Amino acid sequence: MKNLLHIFKILFIFALPIAAENLYENLNANQLKRLDYLSENIRCPKCSYGNINSSNAPISKDLKQEIAKLIEEGYTNDEIFNLMEERYGNYVILKTDINENTTLFLIPLMVLLISILLVTTYTIKRSK
Amino acid sequence: MGQLEGMVTRYFLVLILALLVTMLSIFSLSLVQTDELQTIKTQEGKKLIISEKIHDLDGNPIPLESLTEGKVLLNVWASWCITCLVEHPFLKSITESKDVKLIGINYKDQNFNAMKYLDKNGDPYEFSIFDLSGDISLKLGVTGAPETFLVIDGEIVSHRIGEVNLEVWNEKFAPYF
Q1: B54-55 and B61-62: which strand pairing?
Q2: What Å distances lie between residue B6 and A85, A112, A117, A122, B1, CA to CA?
Q3: Per the CB < 8 Å rule, is B8 touching A121?
Q4: Residue B130: how many other CB atoms lie within 10 Å
Q5: Mutation for testing the B interface, residue in A125, A126, A128 having most B CBs under 10 Å
Q6: Would you say domain B54-176 falls under CATH 3.40.30.10?
Q7: ipTM over 0.85
Q8: pLDDT above 60 (res A38)
């Protein structure tokens, strides 16, 4: 009987982390996915690198909690990104906006295209 | 025929070179235009927004006007924060030598520990706002402790993330005193 009690205690200890996992119980699966996406793409303001998800700074936990609350209140992803940018600046947004950095995205593509053309013409010329 | 192909190759080489030059000029131009390394934005120029009810360390309610009227120096501190302990003597000397209204925000701290810290190291604050959850500070844009705001008539005029020492004081806060 005493052994059984011990086993039960040990089982209880192992069960604790499972209970601790469900921190954002007000959110449904889809909202949790959004929370994860946002926390993955917003930088921790206290750290020089690392997003909210990967950081253990108290502010990151607070921010995640706040984002969860905002999602619950019906804010869209863009609205939450804007809110964070408004408060901490563009620096915290890890998701790069293609429309704002067109040259940055286009130049490597152009270089690639032109080099492909160059290499093809060169090899065609050599094979003749 | 071979002459034509040579011309085409030369044409592409010139194109690549032109592209490289434009790339280089775009990048160097953007280097010149950026006058500051991009880091966390300070809260300068924003209004001081506190929507919650605020209390001091003893639990007495504090009217919001005591923060939004006149010149107020807000310092975020905690008993667990080592840099706060470093800047503490400087804050004391500033309140002694100048006419500074210094108000603390006790950030994510236990009431008892905060009191003990002030007993031990001296209390330069007029009072300290008790912010156990860190909610008030979060809405203010505080990223951690220590941080210092200079608020003039409800507007954040100067904001320092990190320790305040004589050098920082002279640069960011002294012109207002």
Answers
A1: antiparallel
A2: 52, 21, 14, 9, 9
A3: yes
A4: 22
A5: A125
A6: yes
A7: no
A8: yes
